[in-house]
Amino acid sequence: MTIKPSNFVVTTIAFGCFASGCFTSFGQTQEAANEPPPIEAYSPFAMVHEGDAAHGAKLFADEQKVGCTKCHSIDGKGQKAGPDLFAVGDQFARRELIDSVLHPSARIAVGYSTTVAETKSGEEVQGVLKQATDKWIELIGADGKRVRLNTADLKEQHGSDVSLMPEGLQAGLSLQDFTDLISYLVTLKEPVNSIATRHGMPDEIPALAQPVALIPFFKEPLHVPAGTTGETGKIQAGLVWFGQVPGFANRFLATDEAGMIWLIEKHGDDEQISPFLDLTKEVFSARGPNGLLGLAFHPEFRQNRKYYLKHQVFEDGKIATVLVERTVSPDFKTDSGNPSRRLLKIVSVAEHHNGGCIQFGPDGYLYVGMGDSAPNFDPQDQAQNLGMLFGKMLRIDVNRRNPGLEYGIPSDNPFLGKPGVRPEIWAYGFREPWRFSFDPLNGDLWVADLGQERGDEVDIVRRGENDGWSVYEGYELFSSEHRKEGTDYAPPIFSTLRKHGSAVMGGYVYRGDKNSSFYGVYICGDNVSKHIWGLTQKNRTLKTVHLLATAPQPITSFGTDEKGNLYVVGYQGMIYQLDLAHANFNETTPSSSTSSLPSPARQQTAAR
Ligand code: HEC
Fold first, then answer.
1. By C-alpha distance, which of 435, 446, 451, 443 is closest to 383?
2. pLDDT by residue (tens digit) across 564-579?
3. CB 37 within 8 Å of CB 186
4. 97 lines ligand 1 (CB under 6 A)
5. Is residue 576 in contact with ligand 1, taking CB distance under 6 Å?
């Protein structure tokens, strides 16, 4: 049996009454005559009725009624249990905002999931992880109180699929009040004038006159052959990676986060899908960006049949990210079934921000994107700490083994031989470098790194560079706390305002058809807004960014094939090929123009 400490309000107890229609948790009683409308009534009403945003603002702050401000700030500081909502009207459409309030657990904001900690003496504490060290963790509960627990006293610590945001908050509101509240959320937009620099972070992104068509690669969302489903049953969705099998123009692999890899053979309209590898028993996959995250083929894949996976495991009571080597069968149609050879294991601190991508560079070395694996704000400064693999781009040699390691360290890695520094590090200062790629023409390493509050960024990363997190976020100074004098922080090429996107998904520089207007354009997108952008740069300064299309599904990744075609990976199981042949990168809608972007500068005005 679990005992909840009295100073720590647990969601189900404090707010459970809302769901059942009573109203006791704030000391009020709900008369039977005032039964709130059923939950189904709120969304249709709020979709079609005007709301009074000013009244909604009052309700938002009214701690006697719904008490949103107990858990949410709107000043961009984000120190409470829930996400700061300062730009929530930029990030989400009205319907999504309604759903967020009515069904908090249906989509849980990354970095704000509930952690459940069970102590050896049987207490259970729930909250959002705010800090984590080797010795203690700090959770912020639904009551806004922070509780510090020694890891030595913990029996278990795990994530939960239930949001800390209570269900049933609408029950304290009339339909019109609820609509007013939603209308207020819609007005919460990132104050553009608070951002001092506009270069590389344009206010407007012009759309192509003729959007790039997205051609479905499958006739239907990735369909799983009967009798082959993994135990998780999650495999029709959660696609996170797609690419061509080297040397086989008609064979492609698609991976889902639960740990299945599918082989797709495509001949014209005829497509066959078969399981390539079922790793669902080994892969730990839970809330948010967890699970099977990335795949890379060895540069000599056709000769040695080796490929690599990056995925999560749950071992010794902890989530860890592992990098493994596997081989395919001699006919290249399935995995060989031989066990993985584990090259690297990195034990996570937080459930999220463990990067995802692995890619071989033009130098033949394997690059690994590792996130800060930290609660928001990276409070322990992991991304800037060169003694840790968190928040780094790593570079290793899979063909050799250094003593004590399952891989080699390339002799020109920038920090090799420096005391106290991990020699695997190629560059540092990343928060969540989920997807990266190399320009096939010149080897430029393009990394898309997810920011926390203000914006995500796209970088071209050079050897040994510091890309800024958590000192910088995009172009802005994020926190002076971890700033070191005399350190250079490389600015991004492009950074998103929240109205453009909330989770950048890195893509590829298009090097398909040399005569295409897209030749040399870096194409990437956003998981939340589903926008797909193309951008060009000179000397790592943004020249142009255009909106190419909007994907029908949340984007998790981009894929490519040997011809240089580009694909968009949809989380709900669809892959789309970008039809670049029938669009022109240089023709945008007449209402907007990008010809003059203001001058670049990394500003230091928005410190916090
Ligand atoms: C007990 C704390 C708590 C209260 C009270 C609360 N929230 Fe939340 N809220 C959270 C947490 C934690 C999350 C993040 C987890 C999730 O997405 O469900 C969240 C998420 C959200 C989101 C989605 C934000 C995003 O970036 O995805 C919205 C919108 C939101 N809350 C609005 C509200 C409104 C409006 C109220 C008042 C009616 C409210 N919340 C009350 C804790 C709370």
1. 451
2. 999 999 988 889 999 9
3. no
4. yes
5. no
pLDDT per residue over 420-445, tens digit each?
999 999 999 999 999 999 999 999 99
CA gap 556, 288 in Å, rounded? 12
Say how many Å lie between the CA of residue 71 and the centre of ligand 1: 7
Give the separation between CA 451 and CA 377, rounded to whole angstroms. 10
Q: Indicate if ligand 1 lies below 6 Å from the C-beta of 66.
A: yes
**What is the number of other CB atoms lying within 10 angstroms of the CB of residue 383?**
29
| Contact criterion met (CB below 8 Å) for 250 and 203 | no
Distance 68 CA to ligand 1 centre (A): 7
Spacing of C-alpha 344 from chain mean position: 22
Task: Say how far apart CA 61 and CA 218 lie, in whole Å.
Answer: 48
Residue given tokens 């509101």 in the structure block: 173
Task: Mention every residue, 6+ apart, whose C-beta is less than 8 A from residue 285.
Answer: 232, 234, 238, 257, 258, 259, 291, 292, 312
Pocket of ligand 1 contains residue 109 by CB under 6 Å: yes
For the chain, give the number of residues.
608
Distance 283 CA to ligand 1 centre (A): 30
Burial class of residue 266, CB neighbours in 10 A (0-12, 13-18, 19+): middle
Q: Whose CA is nearest to atom 43 of ligand 1?
A: 165
With the most atoms of ligand 1 within 8 angstroms of its CB, the residue from 91, 103, 165 to mutate is: 165
From the CB of residue 93, how many other CB atoms can be counted at a distance below 10 Å?
11
Q: Tell me how far apart the alpha carbons of residues 299 and 388 are, in angstroms, rounded to a whole number.
A: 28
Residue listed under structure tokens 């700061």: 84
Mutate to test the pocket of ligand 1, among 66, 71, 502 (most ligand atoms within 8 A of CB): 71
Pocket lining: 503 vs ligand 1, CB cutoff 6 Å: no
Query: What atom in ligand 1 is closest to the CA of residue 166?
Result: 1
Whole-number Å distance, alpha carbon 481 to ligand 1 midpoint, is 27
Q: Is the dihedral of CA 538, 543, 546, 552 positive or negative?
A: positive
Which residues fall within 8 angstroms of residue 558, CB to CB, at 6 or more apart? 435, 437, 505, 506, 507, 508, 523, 524, 525, 566, 567, 568, 569
Distance 108 CA to ligand 1 centre (A): 9
State in Å: Cα 102 to ligand 1 middle: 10
Asked if pLDDT for residue 9 goes beyond 70, the answer is no
62-79 pLDDT tens trace:
988 888 999 999 987 778
Report how far residue 38's alpha carbon sits from residue 20's, in angstroms, rounded to the nearest whole number.
10
pLDDT tens digits, 285-341: 876 678 999 999 999 999 999 999 999 999 988 889 999 999 999 999 999 999 999
